[in-house]
Amino acid sequence: MSTATAHAHTEDHHHHEESFISKYVFSMDHKMISKQFLITGIIMGVIGMAMSIAFRLQLAYPETSFPILEWLFGSKWAPDGHLDAGYYMALVTMHGTIMVFYVLTAGLSGTFANLLLPLQVGARDMASPFMNMLSYWLFLLSSLVLLSSLFVETGPASGGWTIYPPLSALPKAMPGSGMGMTLWLVAIVLFIASSLLGGINYVSTVLNMRTKGMSMTRLPLTVWALMLTAVLGILSFPVLLGGGLLLLFDRGFGTSFYLSDIYLGSAGALEHTGGSPVLFQHLFWFLGHPEVYIIIMPALGITSEIIAVNSRKPIFGYTAMVISLLGIAFLSFIVWGHHMFITGMNPLLGAVFLVTTLIIAVPSAVKTFNYLATLWRGNIRFTNGMMFAIGLVSFFISGGLTGIFLGNAALDIQLHDTYFVVGHFHIVMGCAAIFGMIAGIYHWFPKMFGRMMNKPLGYIHFWLTFISAYLVFFPMHFMGLAGVPRRYYAFTLLPEYNVWADVNVLMTLAAILGGIAQIIFLYNFFSSIFIGEKATQNPWEANTLEWTTPVERIHGNWPGEIPTVYRWAYDYSNPAYEADFMPQNIPDEHSAEELFEKNTSVDPARKDSPVRETADFFTLLRNWFKPRTV
Amino acid sequence: MKEEVEYSGVHPKKFSLWLLLLGILMLFAGLTSAYIVRRGDGNWFDFPIPTVFLYSTLIVLLSSLSMWFAYRSAQKDELGNVKLGLVITIILAIAFTLSQYWGWTVMEEEGLYFVNPKEGEKVSASFLIAIAAIHLVHILAGIIFLISTYIKTLNAKVHKKNLLSIDMCNTYWHFVGLLWVYLYLFLYFAPDF
Predict the structure, then answer these.
(1) How far is B125 from chain A (nearest CA, A)?
(2) Is residue B73, in this structure, part of any structural domain at all?
(3) Is the pLDDT of residue A8 over 80?
(4) Chain A residues inside the 8 Å CB shell of B121
(5) For residue B4, is it within any domain?
(6) Complex ipTM above 0.90?
(7) A75, A409, B95, B161: which is deepest, by most CB within 10 A?
(8) Residue B46 lies in a domain
(9) What is the pLDDT of residues B131-186, one digit of tens each?
């Protein structure tokens, strides 16, 4: 019998068949991991959006009873269909956490870095497929831990997604500070581990595993954006980890890093003294600000690629695009103070943060103008992906402009903690990034699933989402200018805000419309996986390497040799060629000869020298920027 | 599927390690910055760092030497010396761990605890212990790394032509050692500024 099993095993091995588990569950193939990230991200996105509709209902109709809320959250959190005030805060906190970390960080860069980095740089897989798999599973575990906090007796964390102490540091401060907060912290520690494993992998893949000819200056902008995003993650998440550890010490052991003299109604005067809650804000926002660029940069990279492909034009100002990404990445580390202008910061320091913040407008504007210049007089193809990419540009402009208001320390004193801030970041970071993500899904769906998504449904999805997003978030700016504070459960006791009641109703109805639009998207996405039109090899006639792989997924990406790269990624409508695109792997007649000659001349001095396993840092640095030839 | 991939000089795994070290560096940059910011706020008790931590520093420097000796021996294919170097490094690493613990007990005798209820100015002691403890976690990870490299050496998987694992171990160990030297100097000089 044992021989028979052994025989069966060898048979199996011979055919290279992947079992269900190794193909779909514990997959180490980057394309499958990217789908896992995407679908987990979509599920988290649905939950996050449903929460937002629940609390929007509360804001629009504070005195109406919604039996559906009682059915959903139980009679404890929504007695008689009225949302409990503490639970409102919990929903806001969970909505923020889910959207910022789980959808727009892991869902966005996890999906597209996994899918695109190996395919676009020409690698068989990630630098470490195992670490990649671990990254996904830690992310899933972290998602489950976070969601499990919805079911604990005291409810989920409710001190805001920024978890400022003392609410986060004292388990007895309010119901959400108890078990829910502990689970939140555990979830984020797992998330940081997942994000670091992923990020390290992404950077090493891009820097070490590019195919022949793929110099840094030939990389598609998606790769630049995703790589710099990963670098930001590696540099900023550890600082949050440090801040979080000190918070855990305060919470668990009774140290006073962040806690000052406090009197709690339930526990009397506490023994903590001398701590500084502002210190936590410094550590948090040192992550928090790069984090918003971790969210937006992949979306910007995706947009660069989609706009160039569908305008049939080279991206305008490739070098400027790369430099502006580098500029944004660098500046993102020296602006965190603009989240803390009203913490009693030294005005001189505030002025420094003000200046660095406003400088970010420069690279951002460079990107915006380059998008517009790429679109200008292009042969635009309005694919679904293109619509969403242009939508991103719209949101990036309108949200970016309000950022200039908030970056001013003096104006921020008025606008801080009002709906102006909510409107600003939802447009510039929420909507822009989600539009980039959806653009990417429409554009690369054929690569992921070998089928096309339904185009008419895509247009309906786009227009409903675009209109509803502006209807929800644009009025918030006016409310904020009038001083309406954020994070209030109801304004019924503040008659001066009554004038905004109708606006709140409009925003809620628009949010529900946006929710319905996403249902259309979900239907389109999941049905197209099975019944969508079969995709062709290169449906968008794009230049990048991912469209040279076979439509059917194979482990290792290319059946034969990895293609060699002979040109940059944006040779569209080049008058020198007949076709309006020229894939990166097709050589010019002249350059092919050149490469061939180089191949034949071997430096005799180097011929017999052994391959060095290690190289010094500067050799490495030089090699990165050297165009690699055959 | 396996094919010769030409890397630009450095193995992707080692490169990944460098990125990880960069992350660890940022963790401690964050913590020591927090120290500076909190100290700048006032209500802060300055005390000289106990001498025990100087012994820690010397131990960790010695262990870097023995690690270097092990790595050099691997390059020269002197496998006996590799094992010797690794064992000495592991012993010194454990000695470092004990010396850290000793340092904390010395602080305790001076009334400097990790948790100082009602004595907010002694958060300086909490900072020192927190930073040292978080660093110690990285040393413990390093000990696991050293032991796994030692086991590989016993299985003859570390030699002149297979240097990757000992190379990475070497890099990590020098890094956490130098990290402690930085932290010691930081904590030594911080009270004087």
Answers:
(1) 10
(2) yes
(3) no
(4) 274
(5) no
(6) yes
(7) A409
(8) no
(9) 999 999 999 999 999 999 999 999 888 888 888 899 999 999 999 999 999 999 99
The answer to whether residue B91 neighbours chain A at the CB level (below 8 Å) is no
Residue of chain B whose alpha carbon sits nearest to that of A16: B1
CB of B110 within 8 Å of any CB in chain A? Answer: no
**Residues forming beta bridges with residue A70, ordered by sequence position:** none
Domain limits for position B107: 13-40+51-192
- Token code pair at residue A579: 């076709």
Residue A350's domain comprises: 23-531
Considering the domain boundaries, does residue A585 fall inside one? Answer: no
pLDDT given for residue A623 in this prediction = 67
**DSSP conformation letters of B91-143:** HHHHHHHHHHHHHHHHHHHTT--SS-TT-GGGHHHHHHHHHHHHHHHHHHHHH
Q: Which of residues 22-41 of B touch A (CB under 8 A)?
A: 22-24, 26-31, 33-34, 37-38, 41
DSSP, collapsed to helix, strand or coil, labels residue A228 as: helix
Beta-strand pair A268-269/A263-264:
antiparallel
In a domain, residue B89? The reply is yes
Q: What is the pTM of this model?
A: 0.90
CATH number of the domain at A355, please: 1.20.210.10
Q: Which amino acid is at B192?
A: D
| A109 vs A531: CA distance, rounded Å | 27
Q: CB–CB of A300/A325 below 8 Å?
A: yes
| Residue listed under structure tokens 């209109």 | A467
State the total domains in chain B: 1
Q: Please tell me the distance in Å from A284's CA to the nearest CA on chain B.
A: 10
- What is the mean predicted confidence (pLDDT) over B27-54? 93
In chain A, residues with a C-beta closer than 8 Å to the C-beta of B160 are none
CATH number reported for the structural domain that contains residue B134 in this entry: 1.20.120.80
CA torsion, ordered A320, A321, A325, A328, to nearest 10 deg: 60
| Chain A contact set for B36 (CB, 8 A) | none
Instruction: Return the SS3 of A349.
Output: helix
Q: Which residue has the tokens 């400022």?
A: A164
